[in-house]
Amino acid sequence: MDYYIQTPVQLGAALRSHRKLLLLTQKEAAKKVGLLPKTISNLENYTVSASIGSMFKLLSSLELEIIITPKIEESSKQSTLEW
User: Fold this and answer.
1) pLDDT tens digit string along 29-51?
2) How far apart (Å, rounded) are the C-alpha atoms in residues 69 and 29?
3) Which residues make Cβ contacts (< 8 Å) with residue 27, sequence separation at least 6?
4) Under 8 Å CB-to-CB from 6, ≥6 apart: which residues?
5) How many CB atoms sit inside 10 A of residue 57's CB?
6) Is residue 62 within 8 Å of residue 22, measured between CB atoms?
7) pLDDT per residue over 12-31, tens digit each?
8) Comparing C-alpha atoms, which of 31, 83, 21, 81 is closest to residue 57?
């Protein structure tokens, strides 16, 4: 499943959704990569105190990766759909 993320809130929601899809509790996801459950909660709820390193550990525990692509402008999206 791909997640289209543009905001920190969307990122947290996607992480929570994917964790639940894998039937993992915050405690189980945290244990897989040596984090505290409250760190998982912080990442899912966009608490600023969570680090990028913790984010990557959570991504690893959820078997996810980040792919960065150029942003497509709305006009480009529309012209592509009109083919």
Assistant:
1) 999 999 999 999 999 998 777 88
2) 27
3) 37
4) none
5) 20
6) yes
7) 999 999 999 999 999 999 99
8) 31
